[in-house]
Amino acid sequence: MSSIDSIGEVLELFISKKSVDRMLLDIKGVVNDKFYAKDIDRSVLISSIDSYKLAQDRDIELEYGELGENILIDYNPYRLKSGTKIKIGEAILEISQNCTLCKSLTKLDKRLPKLLKDDRGIFAKVIKAGEIKKRDKIYLIKN
Q: Hey, which bits of the chain come out as E strands?
């Protein structure tokens, strides 16, 4: 028996850094994204608004989407363990791993890779396909 708890909501959505109001996910990832069907365990990148606040606190101005996320949320999911399942819109995602250190962030600011080492995002794989829209609630599925 599993239960679900609301933990936050979707603020922004991005397909290959392009802001969208809705996106479709299937078991290969975010449909039409440049990373679609490349690595199932890293098919969806979820970032928290906290990452942008952390950068802003160091006077690093970033536009939403510049961290490469597909889904920007108002909840900090970075401490969720691999295997944790969340429901967003119609889709169910399973947390697969923390986002690794990305040197491409130095193009935005040389301090970013070190600053966001553990706070850039988490990767998830799609367990149940479906549509996600801005303002959709996020639910933590507990077993």
A: 3-15, 18-20, 22-26, 29-30, 44-48, 71-73, 85-88, 91-98, 122-128, 130-133, 137-142
With a threshold of 0.85, does the pTM exceed it?
Answer: yes
CA distance 99 to 95: 11
Radius of gyration of the chain measured on its C-alpha atoms? 14
Domains of the chain: 3-142 (2.40.33.20)
- Segment 84-118, tens digit of pLDDT: 999 999 999 999 988 876 778 888 899 998 888 88
**What element of type H or E holds 114?**
helix 112-115
